[in-house]
Specification:
Blueprint: E1 3-8, H1 12-23, E2 28-34, H2 37-47, E3 51-55, H3 63-73, E4 78-82, H4 86-98, E5 102-105, H5 112-130, H6 156-161, E6 163-168, H7 172-180, E7 189-194, H8 201-211, E8 215-218, E9 229-232, E10 238-244, E11 247-253, H9 265-275, E12 280-284, H10 293-301, E13 305-309, H11 319-325, E14 331-333, H12 335-346
Parallel strand pairs: 1-2, 1-3, 3-4, 4-5, 6-7, 6-12, 7-9, 8-9, 12-13, 13-14
Antiparallel strand pairs: 10-11
Helix pairs in contact: 3-4, 7-12, 9-10, 10-11
């Protein structure tokens, strides 16, 4: 049975484009297109869609207000349609906090190649949203613990010789946040990939920096990886690590996408396997697809200890599942146990 999709967007042009893109897939059925949240509310009652695509900026009631009400009264999978602006990225991050499953940035160009890639992306995300575990505000897991000011008690040798590598996709903005806020400031350096456009990663890094005890920055390339710091791959480049003296530095490149992604988790994990080896801890979190599985397998073969998020706490159990299937994961834990298990392993 086809997935029933309701489009909510104030732009007639965007509604037409989304209708054509989504309706062009045999397993997706556009049951309606609403110009605003008020019309959408009435159409949801009548059409009973499986997935909603929701514009962030709309008249009468903006997307955030509508989403907040929807997730309390009639929780359903929502994919946000976001503008590629600083404001758009901030609002989108708020939407993900409110329970939206994922987001798609509005296309900036109309070339056939880019539109085809956009079409594939939004179709895939709608399919993933249909089977996603919803995080409902009223029944969500306990809010992240406050930032940890207590010392980790880890010796300087561990702080300087170890590294933690984290990869995530769909649902990952909230998952990464929940991991970082449960970690103390005294931690080995952390490197991270979250699939998102380049206009979003600065806002995401800034948000994480404000919420956690760690210093979180968007990697620029060439930074020395320091304890107490977390480095997020920018949305335009692959992030790798390179041995430098008795430590490591970040490196960026714009090589071809891997698993359709740049940055790709596989690229980061593969470099960590080569440069850090048994001194690394790998963490793979919620996300659709298989990015990270092979890189994590390389890490395990190099002696790293790898942690995968469990199915129950994932928004989409794709990437952790693929990593487990290829034998790359040492232990599978719920999201709220990832940080404690990382700390326990560092003390191992």
């Amino acid at each position: 049975m086809a997935i029933k999709v309701l489009i909510v967007d104030d732009s007639a042009l965007m509604r037409a484009l989304l209708t054509e893109i989504i309706g062009g897939a045999p397993d997706l059925d556009v049951v309606g297109a609403a110009p605003d949240a008020i019309a959408a509310r009435d159409m949801i009652k009548v059409l009973n869609p499986d997935v909603l695509t929701l514009d962030v900026e709309m008249p009468k009631m903006d997307g955030l207000e509508f989403l907040g009400r929807l997730m309390k009264l009639r929780p359903m999978p929502v994919v946000m349609i976001s503008s590629l602006t600083a404001k758009g990225s901030e609002v989108t991050l708020q939407a993900l906090e409110l329970g939206a499953v994922d987001f798609v940035a509005k296309p900036r160009a109309e070339s056939a190649t880019l539109l085809q890639a956009y079409a594939e992306e939004i179709r895939d995300k709608i399919r993933a949203a249909k089977t996603a575990h919803l995080r409902r505000p009223s029944t969500a897991s306990a809010a992240p613990a406050p930032r940890m000011a207590v010392p980790s008690g880890l010796p300087n040798r561990v702080l300087n010789e170890k590294m933690i590598a984290i990869g995530a996709s769909t649902g990952g903005t909230e998952a990464i946040k929940e991991v970082l806020v449960r970690l103390p400031a005294e931690m080995p350096g952390i490197v991270m990939v979250q699939h998102m456009p380049e206009t979003f990663t600065p806002s995401f890094a800034k948000r994480l920096d404000g919420l956690s005890a760690l210093r979180v920055i968007e990697a620029q390339g060439g930074e020395r990886i320091q304890p107490g710091h977390a480095y997020l791959a920018p949305g335009h480049s692959h992030l790798t690590v390179k041995r430098s003296g008795n430590g490591w530095v970040t490196e960026l490149n714009q090589n071809e996408p891997v698993n359709r992604h740049r940055p790709a988790v596989d690229v980061l994990f593969s470099s960590v396997a080569k440069e850090v080896g048994r001194n690394a801890i790998g963490v793979i979190l919620t996300g659709m697809g298989k990015d990270g599985a092979q890189g994590m397998l390389a890490m395990r073969r190099a002696g790293a200890w790898n942690i995968g998020q469990d199915q129950e706490s994932c928004v989409v159990y794709g990437m952790p599942r693929e990593a487990a299937l290829v034998g790359a994961v040492d232990e599978v834990v719920s999201l709220n146990n990832v940080a404690p298990r990382v700390l326990a392993r560092l003390q191992h």
